[in-house]
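Contributing new records

If you add data, match the layout below exactly. Sequence lines come first and carry their own label; structure lines follow with theirs. Keep one chain per record. Anything else will be rejected by the validation script.
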Amino acid sequence: MATFSTWLLFCFFSLLLLSHNIIRLEASHQVDETLLEASSTPIIQHHRTAYHFQPPKNWMNDPNAPMLYTGHYHFFYQYNPKGAQWGNIVWAHSTSTDLVNWTPHESAIWPSQPADIKGCWSGSATILPDGKPVILYTGVNPQNQQVQNLAVPKNLSDPYLIEWVKFTKNPIMAPTESNRINASSFRDPTTAWLGPDKRWRVIVGSKRNRRGLAILYKSKDFVHWIKTQHPLHSAKDNGMWECPDFFPVSIASNVGVETSVVGPKAKHVLKLSLDDTKHDYYTVGSYDIEKDVYTPDEGSVESDLGLRYDYGKFYASKTFFDSAKNRRILWGWINESSSARDDVKKGWSGVQAIPRTLWLDKSKKQLIQWPISEIERLRVNQVRWTSKVLKGGSVIEVTGITAAQVFDSSWTNPQILCSKKGALVKGGLGSFGLKVLASKGLEEYTAVFFRIFKGNNNKYVVLMCSDQSRSSLNSNNDKTNYGAFLNVDPVHETLSLRSLIDHSIVESFGGEGKVCITPRVYPTLAVDSVAHLYAFNYGAQDVQITGLSAWSMKKAKIN
């Protein structure tokens, strides 16, 4: 029997305030030694995903060195081949022709040199002008210092790039007494970019005291690297900057641009992963390549209270330029919300978000994210609502799909606001949205919803929330609520919600990709064919859904 998931394209919400009080909506690294090598024989499998990337078993975390080479997408990732907890890390490797179905290969990089004998940690790929790919990655040496290493393919005629050869003179960047680099906080080199002076540039994450640093190196030949006198950028009170990412975005179109592009037709994005909070945040700004300085735009918030790719579970993200389709693709690790012991019982931990296409919003102040179009090839069995009124206080089931997997002043902290005002708290305009992975009696469900407030100067404030408080009867899970303010004027703009639901993951895109929220959930009742999907409105005013589309999804071939 075929296994299906569901893709819900729940395009709600171009808000019009009607005279009869209906809201009209239009569509559109701490290690537990006792668990480190514990048995990872899979036991509980109804929480495994059907179209999100994950290995067959064991631990996975950071995405590494995504790239396109001779028609094949390559994806490397931090992997523990011995268990479902962090440790014993190697670079696992899979390839794909469509970013949906994946073929596994042998591990590409593992500890084998003094420069990485105590760890092969995250890094990035760069495609040189002659088409040759090169990987820069962090190693841990016998003195527990973090250093940067280089590896190249053994056989460039092999489209799968199975074997990689490390540079015999690794490391190529290292802490010294003279450069004063923090040897325990120096990791995760980015994709390099080539300046008009024919010198390569790369940044490595670091910190000095509580100041986050993007340490800049330059090279003529990609082998010999010199640290510059100043970082590309730094920010106080951030702590360690892990997995930095630095890339240009076009100001004129949604088309992606190659990493070395600079000039008046592009802005730049600097993304940092905060080791202290395990949140990714980014700023949009300008890059002066002559001074090698990045400056965030005025008003940017340089912390995880500012712009984030995702306001739920999403960390250590990495982008690459897809030259075949001229787009920038984002990968991100989504870790578990289950306990470490439950992870060992189920035999695996960690999944990757659906790859997302990135571009600059028309406001030029933030990024837009949208799932890659290839995922839509898995659609089957569409269910459609053309128009339906959700009366205040109502809940309506969406039937005809497999709902275990669905796709398609003081208001300063939306996370706290979503915790205080969960899905069941009634208001004027909202809460309204979806209850997904729901049991028949609603003992379990995850609610993704909006609230609309009247703010200062009679302007509307839109809050998007993901409420996990009733997601599972298992009390061992983290059920933190997530939320973000959505920069949409509900009177004049479309307010939409698109959700990708896949057994234990709910990726939601609000405002056509302006806000993304991804929780991990582990229902005990609402699993597989007995999971339900509901649309609800707990607000005082009625809500009209002018369009809802849902699809079941075929299972992807993943590893």
